[in-house]
Amino acid sequence: MPHIPSPPPLSVEMEENENWLRSIVSEKDIRLETLYDSETHLEFINHPSPNLSFVSLDPETLLHVNSGDFSLKTTSNRNMRFLETEARLCGLLKQIQALPPAVRSIGELDVENELYTALDKIHRFKGRQWKLQAYPNGIGGMTVNNTRHFTAHKPNPDIAPIFIAALIIYIKFQTPVHQMRVILALLRCIIRALKRNLVDSHC
Predict the structure, then answer these.
(1) Cα gap 97→42, rounded to integer Å
(2) Could you tell me how far CA 140 lies from the centroid of its own chain?
(3) If we measure between CA atoms, which residue out of 39, 48, 95 comes closest to residue 73?
(4) Is 44 strand, coil or helix?
(5) Nearest alpha carbon to residue 41 among 134, 169, 174
(6) Global model pTM greater than 0.90
């Protein structure tokens, strides 16, 4: 009779399954880390407004990628990393949920919970982006006329570096206007301290 190979040991199958689960957790961690390191300013389809408060999603709605009132523009490069992360986490979660309940292990249930937690985290990150744009001066903050900070002046070697540094911070990091007052004051103090040190060194 022909030799019929025996099925692989159960331990091998379990090890492969554990490796698969570890790879999912590793990918999830990397995606979250790169998402939070991003300087991206998310662009929403609907303009963020104080009249529409961000609503956290329930576990079932979390699996609906980029849906609802707080959807992001799919044509914006600023949103690509977030949308890719959201779609990938949902895809991994659906893979685990598609397994027959009889063969799902405790490890798979743990990873499923981790993926739900990761999706909740990125949506809370999305909520913070919505709130920052809906309240650019902070909740209850006042609107400040900042045009005087960008009015042309005669060149001044002491003031010019301060305004250049402030302008870079304002544009690159999208710093709220009400926070720029503290940054400008700090930059003035630094310039004055450097000037004093320079004068002392020539005395």
Answers:
(1) 30
(2) 24
(3) 48
(4) strand
(5) 174
(6) no
CA–CA distance, 13 with 117 (Å, rounded to integer)? 27
Q: 79 vs 44, 47, 69, 123, 135, CA distance in Å?
A: 9, 15, 16, 13, 20
Q: How many helices (H) and strands (E) does the chain have?
A: 5, 0
- Could you tell me the CA-to-CA distances from 134 to 1, 65, 131 in Å, in that order? 76, 22, 5
C-alpha–C-alpha distance, residues 109 and 44, integer Å: 33
pLDDT digits (tens, 9 = 90+) for 128-178: 899 988 887 666 655 555 555 555 555 556 666 666 777 777 666 666 766
Angle at 42 between CA 123 and CA 179, to 5 degrees: 100
Between helix 177-202 and helix 160-172 the angle, nearest 10°, is 150
Strand, coil or helix: what is 107?
helix
CA distance 185 to 189: 6
